[in-house]
Amino acid sequence: MQWKKKTTSESDEQKMFFDWVRRRAASNPIYENVFAIPNGAFLAGDKLRRAKQMARLKAEGLSPGVLDIFVAVPASAMHRCQKCGKSAISRIRGGLFIEMKAGKNLVTLAQKNWITRLRDAGYDVAVCYSGQEAISALERYLEGVEPNMEASHEEC
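^ thats the sequence. predicted structure below, dont judge the formating
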């Protein structure tokens, strides 16, 4: 008999991330601006009650595909010239959205559409498959690290 390896759920990973965020918030209030967006909540009750709840939520603005976590902290993105080593601000970022996934879960079409719109509006987006990945994404964001952004030497 073979045992299946237990994988942690998206919920468990997100809880681990928020445990870390809450510990950081005790000494740095900027972490109080990190919150979950409960867009994928499970509804209770029979079919009719769930339908009524869903209709009410949609009327209140529920939108399929909205990402799981928002970091409501503007930050600047830095880049470093590969030739001379000088650093400069490349852009101001409005905040960071994080989508948590677990196992083999993939980003849905609705989430892909949100990611595109959010990036076009100037927000950063990270899709993370563990609480540790989400922590790393948040730390990089707050440090101003923006992967794959390099200044050309002419811009220095």
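The chain has a mean pLDDT of 84.
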